[in-house]
Amino acid sequence: MYVSIVLLELMLLVTAIVNIYTNRLVNRKLKWEAIASFSLVASAALSEAVGTLTDGGPSALYYLHLYSRLVEFCCAPFIGVMVGITFGWTRKPLIPLTAAGIHAAFQLVCFPLKLVFSVDKQNVFHRELLYPVYAAVFLLSMAYCFAAILQSNRRYHSGNDSVLMLTLATMMVGIVIQKASGGNIRVCYLTIAVCCQLLASRSYQLSMQMDGVTELLNRQCYKNCLGNLHSDCVIIFFDVNKFKLVNDTYGHAVGDFCLKQVAEAIQEIYQLHGDCYRVGGDEFCVILRRRVELLDKLNDAFQDLIKQKHQEDCRIPFVALGFAFYRNGHSDIQAVVDEADAMMYQNKKMLQSEAGKKSFL
Known about the structure:
Layout: H1 2-21, H2 28-54, H3 62-87, H4 94-110, E1 117-119, E2 125-127, H5 131-156, H6 162-180, H7 188-209, H8 219-227, E3 233-240, H9 243-250, H10 252-270, E4 274-278, E5 283-288, H11 295-312, E6 319-326, H12 333-355
Antiparallel strand pairs: 1-2, 3-5, 3-6, 4-5
Helix pairs in contact: 1-2, 1-7, 2-3, 2-7, 3-4, 3-5, 4-5, 6-7, 9-10, 10-11
C-alpha cells in the first residue's frame, strides 16, 4: 500500500512539472519556481520512501537508508519555503531561503555526531536529542508557506477565497495526521503534492485574471464585477494625467514603471476595502465594498501617496479621480459609472489648469 502511495505521489508531481513546463500562460519565473517546488516534494517523498522501506532491512542497505534520511531531513524544510515563494507573496524571499539553508547546514554538521537521528547496526532508524529542532523548523516552514499564500490572497483579492482556505486546511490535516500518528500514517507528502497541484491551478486562473503590467485585476474581471453587483458600493475611477506625454518623453519602459507605481498606490490604500482593476491604458478603477464611510480619507491618502511618489521621482504623474455611489436596487449601474467618469475628468481638468504646462500633472 505504501509503495502504491509513493508511486502516485511521484506520478502526480511529474505530471505537475510537465504541465507547468508546457503551460504558455505561466511566466518564466513562476514556471521555474514551481518546478523547483515540485522537485523538492518529489525528492523528500522518495527519500522518505527509501528510508522507510530499508528501515530494519539487510545491512547491505545501511548506507542507502542512512543517506536517504539525511536527504529528507535537509530537503523537507525547503518545501514550505519554496511553495510559499512560488504560490504566495513575500517582499524578501532570500530570508526564508537562507534560514532553510542554515538548517540544511545544521543537519550536515549534526549528521556524523548523530544528534538529530541515527541508524544503528541493525539498520533501524532512531530519533535523537535534537530531532525536535528538525520538526520545529519543518512546521515553521509550512507556517511561512501558509502566511505567504494568505498574504497573496489579500494582495490580489482582498476577500475570502474559500477554495484557497480549504486547500491550506487539507495540507494542514495531512501534516497533522502524519505527525500525530508518529509517522505510522505517511500521507504528508501526498497531501502536499495534491495541494501544490491545486495551488498551481489557482495560479493559472490568477494569470488569466490579472493585468500583466500592474498585477491588478484586468478589464474582463471589471466588466464581470459590474454585471454581478448585488450590494451597495462606491465606484472610483482613476486616470493618469498626461500619460502619453510621459511615454513620448521617456519611453514606454518608464511609462510602464509609472503605471506600476500608480497601481501600487491604489493597492496600498484601497485593497483591504475593495477590488482594484486596470480598465484601460492609463485608467484604473476601485469598487469599494467595505468601509465606505472612509471614502474621503482613503482618497486623500491616495493623493498624498501619489504626491510623495512624484516628489521622489518627478516622472511619476499625478492622478485624477472621481467616484459615485451605487445603491443596490435603486441605482442604474451605467448612470453611476458615467457619474464617476464625469467627476474624474472634471478633476483632471482642474489639475491640469493648476499645473499649467510646466509639469506632467
